[in-house]
Design a protein that fits this description.
The chain has 440 residues and is mainly β. 8% of the residues lie in helices and 47% in strands. The chain has 4 helices and 35 strands.
């Protein structure tokens, strides 16, 4: 067995490292380390890599990740039921660097929701009923825990961060969604619109800039669609006449903004709606504690696809890059769904590494293979979805349950019940780690 060899052919999609696709006899006991030595020798012989280069590579053997540095090629072949008699196609690519912790800070209460903007602004929702804005460039708060809600904030969402004004939304256990306008220099923040209609806590928000619509999900089991305009329109003004109100009601209106009704209400879930995402201008996908994931035609107000999970679905995200839906469940698994499939399995794969509920996840905005997740096991994990049993990296920083993660550009953020926010640099630069799973 120790003398057994397997026939491998190396390929890559990275132009810089493309080499002749020659077949090589490789010892069956070879590990990631030996494969790295071999491919570097090949690349150096073909003048594709300098001899003193510190670049390391990862490998996909027949589209399955050889992630463990201790696992041999033969063990990988046996585990994935691959043929030992045929040529094995091995795709190699530059190893992903580990996320690097850049900053952290603490606020007054549990952190329920985080949202990063393209400009590095972090919107924070907290159980103390406040919202805050942190600037990664300034490494300080622009607005520190400003309160307009009467109960815990459960969801936050950016509407616009262009120019000198910031526009954003927050949903709360007080059943309201507030749309805000704020000066980017930190001078003034004010609520402009108060969206009213949910009968219980607002749990999730997602804004679509292309149609200027805001979607929300609630404990009342409904999904609602709202105008995302932060300008007070005639319809908003017609719903309130300050001259006819009592002084107390006028003061309350000033505190939360002009009331606005929903444009559409979608009913179909039987329990709390835990996630909502726009797929395109006329369709959304939602998740719920009722064990379902539903796709909706917003214009027709109908369910187009009804997908069933084995347990409660705690969170959801949709990737515009690979068109897959990712869900985190109460059974500690992450499932990847392809709702476009009409024949065969809708669940494309299951990622298993968390030890408790998966409460939040977010796809990489640019890499179709990667996502980040957080859970009640206190871990934040980054994944390459071609490795279903081992996460790429584990960030061990939180001392309590993780409630929210986000990923935008080269930044990953996490927050939770320890009241702390951690900010990581997640650039795709080459890393030097040779560990099976980097613990940070």
């Amino acid at each position: 067995m120790s003398d057994q060899e397997l026939l491998l052919k190396f390929t890559t999609s990275q132009e810089k490292y493309k080499c002749s696709e020659t077949e090589y006899n490789v010892p069956a006991r070879a590990t990631n380390k030996e494969l790295n030595t071999l491919i570097k020798e090949i690349l150096q012989a073909e003048k594709k890599l300098e001899k003193n280069s510190h670049v390391d590579f990862d490998f996909l053997i027949e589209k399955q990740f050889l992630l463990s540095n201790d696992s041999t090629v033969l063990e990988h072949v046996l585990e994935n039921q691959l043929s030992q008699e045929k040529v094995l196609n091995v795709e190699f690519f530059v190893k992903q660097s580990a996320p690097e912790k850049k900053n952290s800070f603490e606020i007054n209460d549990w952190i329920s929701s985080l949202k990063l903007s393209n400009e590095g602004l972090l919107l924070i929702g907290s159980y103390d009923s406040s919202v805050a804005i942190w600037s990664s460039k300034k490494e300080d708060f622009i607005y520190k825990q400003t309160t307009f809600h009467e109960e815990a904030v459960k969801a936050v969402e950016w509407i616009s961060t262009k120019g000198d004004k910031l526009y954003f939304a927050s949903g709360s256990m007080d059943q309201h969604i507030i749309l805000y306008e704020a000066d980017i220099n930190g001078d003034k923040i004010k609520p402009v619109i108060c969206c009213k209609g949910h009968a219980e806590s607002v749990e999730c928000l997602n804004f679509n800039p292309k149609n200027n619509l805001l979607a929300s999900g609630s404990w009342d089991t409904t999904v609602k669609i709202w105008s995302g305009s932060v300008q007070v329109g005639d319809n908003d003004k017609n719903r309130i006449d300050p001259e006819l109100q009592s002084r107390k009601k006028r003061q309350k209106s000033d505190l939360k903004g002009f009331p606005r009704p929903a444009l559409t209400t979608l009913g179909g879930h039987k329990e709390n709606v835990t996630g909502v995402k726009w797929i395109d201008n006329s369709s959304i996908v939602t998740s719920s504690m009722d064990h379902t994931v539903k796709l909706w035609d917003v214009e027709e107000e109908t369910i187009t696809t009804d997908l069933r999970a084995s347990l409660a679905v705690m969170c959801l995200d949709y990737s515009k890059v690979n068109k897959l839906i990712a869900t985190g469940c109460a059974d500690r698994h992450i499932r990847l769904w392809d709702a476009r499939v009409t024949v065969g399995k809708v669940v494309k794969s299951t990622l298993t590494s968390h030890h408790n509920w998966v409460t939040s996840l977010r796809w990489s905005p640019t890499n179709e293979h990667q996502l980040v997740s957080g859970g009640f096991d206190k871990y934040v994990k980054t994944w390459d979805i071609r490795s279903t049993k081992i996460a790429l990296y584990e960030m061990i920083a939180h001392t309590d349950n993780v409630l929210s993660v986000d990923w935008n550009n080269d930044q990953i953020v996490s927050g939770g019940q320890d009241k702390k926010v951690f900010i990581y640099n997640a650039s795709s630069r080459q890393g030097d780690s040779q560990k099976e799973k980097q613990v940070i």
